[in-house]
Specification:
With 377 residues, this protein is of the alpha/beta class. The protein has four domains: 32 residues, no CATH class; 118 residues, Nucleotidyltransferase, domain 5; 70 residues; 102 residues, no CATH class. Helix content is 53%, strand content 16%. It is built from 13 helices and nine strands. A five-stranded mixed β-sheet has the order 5-4-3-6-7. A two-stranded antiparallel sheet has the order 1-2. Helix 11 crosses helix 12 and helix 11 crosses helix 13. The longest helix is centred in the middle third of the chain and has 35 residues. The two termini are 38 Å apart.
């Protein structure tokens, strides 16, 4: 038995034992702490630029060592962004690798700025407005200049925990716009049909028939538009192998339909931004949280109201379908209700089951199988 001891610069001592003689041994030993390496990268950023975005204006605030050293307002256009860059270059050295650009989610108003920064391969942090607001403590007063300053200081204070923005693929953005359009059309259809249906008991039948006849063609047209948009959504999904793969996996779970599957793909950015079932359950507002403090507060475990309400609604509808047509979940629901459990509590448990099934199947790259048995079991 040969024993050899190798000393490394990081003061770790490695003892290697081999069962037979070795003429020449080459040992390469490298320990990389990913998170430490990532933090060191963040710590190397010199400037943090907070940007308050509105429809017409962009407010830029530059922070170094938590001090605001520069502020500028420009138009929310390519020319306005270029004017800021020109002015910035006059006073500072412009190195995109050493700068973090931080801004809030404001939908399409961000597009000009994000497109410009993405082409420059800049470091972009896209944060939720409520995340920035609640992390800033007590606040007094508000205007665009102050908001830009607070965003920049948020980026500086949380520099070790910032998650850089990863843009969605163009086809995913296209899918997102189509689903948004569908939601708008469904909302308009609901606004027209609900008052007509509810007015039957309170207005004369002649008036109701007149109202229905006047809106009939409009309703038919909206229904056709919804069907056309849904066809376009399916065509987009089928045209891309990755989207089609994810879509087929998600919809293989009974209760989860095309609309829910599309929304999950978009909100998780093809499971790149969110790849953990528990995190997605929290994001969707279906994860239960404890509510207690010492011996005085013993509240019930409950879900947070800060989840994505549209995703939560879709998961709720999926759970209702599942407990109706999926024998396993139907039996589970009925058993828990008979035990005295609250119906909404049981439905929320079903929502969580669906989420965990989706993420498990995506992770293992397989369709959902009822009574699935692990090969290693």
């Amino acid at each position: 038995m040969i024993q050899s001891s190798v000393s490394f610069s990081n003061k770790h001592q490695i003892e290697i034992k081999v069962s037979r003689p070795i003429i020449k041994v080459l040992i390469v030993f490298e320990i990389v702490n990913y998170y430490k390496l990532l933090n060191n990268k963040i710590m190397n950023y010199k400037q943090f630029i907070g940007i308050d975005v509105s429809k017409l204006w962009l407010d830029f605030a530059v922070v170094v060592q938590n001090d605001v050293i520069f502020h500028m307002r420009s138009e929310n256009s390519l020319i306005g962004i270029q004017s800021f860059v020109k002015e910035f270059k006059k006073q500072f050295a412009l190195d995109y690798k050493s700068i973090v650009f931080c801004l809030e989610h404001t939908g399409i108003y961000n597009n000009h700025l994000l497109d410009y920064l993405r082409k420059k391969k800049a470091n972009i942090c896209l944060e939720s407005g409520i995340q920035i607001k609640q992390s800033s403590g007590l606040q007094r007063g508000k205007n665009d200049k102050v908001d830009a300053k607070r965003i920049a200081q948020y980026a500086y204070k949380n520099r070790e925990e910032l998650k850089l923005w990863e843009p969605k693929r163009e086809i995913v953005e296209q899918l997102k716009h189509l689903t948004t359009l569908r939601n708008r059309l469904v909302g308009v259809l609901k606004q027209l049909k609900t008052p007509l249906n509810e007015s039957g008991e309170f207005v004369k039948s002649k008036i109701k028939k007149t109202s229905i006849s006047l809106c009939e063609k409009t309703i038919e047209s909206i229904v056709k538009d919804i069907e056309a948009v849904e066809k376009s959504i399916l065509d987009v999904i089928k045209s891309d192998s990755e989207l089609n793969r994810l879509f087929n996996i998600i919809t293989s779970i009974k209760g989860v339909g095309a609309v829910t599957a599309s929304e999950i793909i978009i909100t998780t950015n093809e499971f790149k931004d969110i790849n953990c079932a528990k995190k997605f359950a929290c994001y969707a507002g279906v994860a239960p949280f404890e509510h207690s403090s010492g011996s005085s507060i013993k509240g019930r475990t409950r879900v947070s109201k800060m989840g994505n309400k549209s995703v939560k609604k879709l998961l709720h509808l999926a759970a209702l379908v599942a407990v109706t047509y999926n024998e396993e979940l139907k039996n589970y629901y009925q058993r828990k209700v008979e035990e005295g459990k609250n119906k909404m509590l049981v439905l929320n448990a079903v929502r969580n089951k669906l989420v965990h099934r989706i993420f498990a199947c995506v992770k293992e790259n397989r369709l959902f199988i009822n009574n699935y048995q692990n090969a290693l079991a």
